[in-house]
Write a structure and sequence with these properties.
The complex is a heterodimer of chains A (287) and B (321). Chain A is an alpha/beta fold and 287 residues long. Chain A is built from 10 helices and 11 strands. In chain A, strands 3, 5, 6, 7, 8, 9, 10 and 11 form an 8-stranded mixed sheet that branches. A two-stranded antiparallel sheet of chain A has the order 1-2. By secondary structure, chain B is an alpha/beta fold. In chain B, helix 1 runs antiparallel to helix 2, helix 3 crosses helix 11 and helix 6 packs parallel to helix 8. The chains are: A alpha/beta (287), B alpha/beta (321). The interface between A and B is large, with 70 and 60 residues. Strand 4 of chain A pairs antiparallel with strand 9 of chain B.
Chain lengths: 287, 321
């Protein structure tokens, strides 16, 4: 569904970068305000445009650096990887797509999970990687997020999940759909244990990911401008045959419609998470 | 009854038989030998077609406008049924039907998607595509079922949750997600049947079941074959290939461990004999209800959790180093 938009964007973005011919490692053009930015300035600003506050997408590695105490992140389930159990073939085989995504990202799949501390508060966490097949949720993403939640069911540490995903991974057929139920069921167990779950919705969070764990936070925090939707804007436009209003399905729109608690600038996110966790966690003194 | 494109050779034979019959009556000639011959041929063709259905042909049967629907099944399968309305928040969604009823002394809550059999009804039912209030009505009824210890029976038949502007504003994603989480926590059994189209999250939103059955010609998929084709194959006309690749038919869904069994349909599809199909569904419902009646609440909950916990195919130690 909404992964359509990801493909569309991907095609578009390759076009523009080819035309610009700017050495990507030194200078970068803000995709929102067109300002030419020094890559180093952007990096030291949590990849937020200093001029227009546009939030660039970030990798799990950067995310870990921005949010958690230095050196505190310990990865878990790193070796869990995907398999082409349906023998799926579209314009290329799923096996080949996996190989390409893995060699590009040096990761097994579209999520990194583990434990860390944030202002010395211990948490279990999972961070999705949009760069790996559009952050699509297949068996591995579902399994690793479920395991992260289950660790918290046992050790009572709060869970923080950072989502960035086009939705379910079609190449895994019905099994990708079932990951929505699996992760949500784990969250039910977490709620029974009274352990807080904070969902941070980053650009984009759509389709099956939005309709399962992403929206189920005790507290939902969205990054500014993030696209958060069940059905993608193009699918909706095709269905209702009218142009969508400006800002539709962006973080601020969801805030106005009561779907997220907060929209927080990435540069303030760490301190906000710290405040929220301290106030919320019933196990705070015992962890 | 609507004829499916691949049924054309059979329809042609049936037309021929009708013509010969007419001719033999009007002209007072004995054509019984000819007719019998064509009838035998028609039987053969029917078998050839229906015993070798492709995935995309099954999709067409699953979408047939005359298939048994939730409303009819509440009448055919249950001894009593009272439809209840509204989500108590926004409205009443005609794309999801729900209510309370009884079957052989069991008190149950029944919920299902509802398409229309004609254009007028389809518009009223939004082609079986629920809005958030549909999922919230379903949740309200399921919570009531859990409170009053009533097993939950659901019938799945939707192209998907409605991708509309207002549906997004009112939280389509939240409504589905909440149902997934809440259904996982109920201590009453949930038995679901995919009776036609099991369309993605819109289907799963009432489908987190202890036991899931597929009608023989029902399909269950993460995205419609057309949607998959236009995204992955960049060509909507590849829907037949996508239908095959995604493994969406009943036998495949059972093989993958997502469904627990198949409800047989008469040759040609469920729309040819509603009574036979509903009798099978009734027997299955009763069998499950009697089995779960013997189980303690915690065991019912664990069975459901373990079932979904086990879903996924992955490598524990991927070769990437």
């Amino acid at each position: 569904m909404s992964i359509i938009d990801w493909f569309a964007k991907k095609e578009k973005s390759t076009e523009t970068s080819a035309k610009l011919n700017i050495p990507g490692d030194v200078w970068i053009k803000c995709t929102h305000c067109n300002e030419i930015l020094f890559q180093k300035d952007l990096d030291s600003n949590c990849k937020v445009c200093p001029k227009c506050n546009f939030h660039f997408r970030v990798s799990p590695t950067d995310r870990i650096r921005y949010i958690f105490d230095a050196g505190s992140f310990v990865e878990q389930d790193e070796s869990v990887g995907p398999t082409d159990f349906l023998g799926f073939f579209d314009t290329e085989s799923y096996s080949d797509r996996i190989k390409k995504a893995q060699s590009k990202s040096r990761r097994n799949d579209a999520v990194v999970s583990g434990y860390a501390t944030l202002d010395k508060i211990p948490v279990n966490t999972a961070i999705m990687d949009f760069g790996y097949m559009g952050g699509s949720m297949g068996s591995v993403v579902g399994e690793k997020i479920t395991r992260a939640i289950e660790r918290s069911v046992v050790d009572h540490k709060p869970v923080i999940v950072f989502t960035s995903s086009g939705g379910a991974r079609m190449q895994e057929g019905i099994m990708s759909l079932m990951q929505m139920a699996k992760t949500s069921a784990a969250l039910e167990q977490l709620a029974e244990q009274r352990v807080p779950y904070i969902s941070v919705l980053c650009d984009p969070t759509t389709g099956g990911t939005s309709a399962s764990f992403a929206i189920l936070g005790d507290i939902n925090i969205a990054e500014p401008g993030a696209l958060i939707s069940f059905a993608g804007p193009r699918v909706i436009e095709q269905t209702i045959r009218q142009k969508l209003p400006k800002g539709f399905q962006r973080a601020e729109f969801l805030l106005a419609h009561g779907m997220v608690d907060l929209v927080v600038d990435r540069r303030e996110l760490r301190s906000m998470l710290s405040t929220v966790l301290t106030a919320l966690n019933p196990y705070g003194d015992t962890l | 009854m609507k004829l499916l494109p691949f049924e054309k050779p059979l329809a042609e034979l049936h037309d021929k038989i009708a013509q010969l019959r007419k001719l033999s009556i009007e002209g007072n000639i004995d054509l019984s030998g000819e007719i019998e011959k064509i009838e035998r041929r028609a039987d053969q063709v029917k078998k050839e077609i229906y015993l070798n259905l492709t995935a995309s042909q099954i999709v067409q049967i699953a979408r047939h406008p005359n298939r048994p629907d939730t409303t009819s099944l509440t009448r055919l399968v249950f001894d009593s049924f009272v439809e209840l309305h509204g989500d108590r928040v926004f409205g009443d969604d005609p794309a999801i039907v729900g209510g309370i009823g009884t079957i052989d002394g069991h008190r149950v809550v029944v919920i299902g998607h509802q398409k229309g059999h004609d254009t007028k009804e389809n518009i009223r039912r939004n082609f079986g595509m629920p809005n958030p209030e549909g999922y919230r009505k379903a949740l309200r009824l399921m919570q009531m079922a859990n409170r009053f210890k009533m097993p939950i029976i659901t019938f799945i038949d939707t192209p998907g949750a409605y991708p509309g502007l207002e549906a997004e504003e009112r939280g389509q994603a939240e409504a589905i997600a909440r149902n997934l989480r809440e259904m996982a926590g109920f201590s009453v059994p949930i038995v679901s049947f995919v009776i036609g189209e099991g369309g993605s999250g819109g289907a799963l939103g009432i489908g987190v079941a202890n036991k899931l059955y597929m009608l023989q010609n029902a399909v269950y998929s993460v995205i419609s074959p057309e949607g998959c084709a236009s995204i992955l194959y960049r060509n909507a006309s590849k829907a037949d290939v996508a239908a095959e690749s995604m493994k969406i038919i009943a036998t495949e869904i059972v093989k993958l461990g997502v469904a627990d069994g198949i409800i047989p349909e008469p040759l040609g599809g469920a729309h040819h004999d509603w009574n036979a199909v509903s009798a099978h569904i009734k027997a299955t419902v009763l069998n499950e209800l009697n089995t779960f009646k013997a189980l303690p609440e915690q065991a019912i909950k664990s069975q459901r959790y373990d079932k979904f916990r086990a879903m996924g195919r992955f490598l524990e130690a991927s070769p990437l180093t």
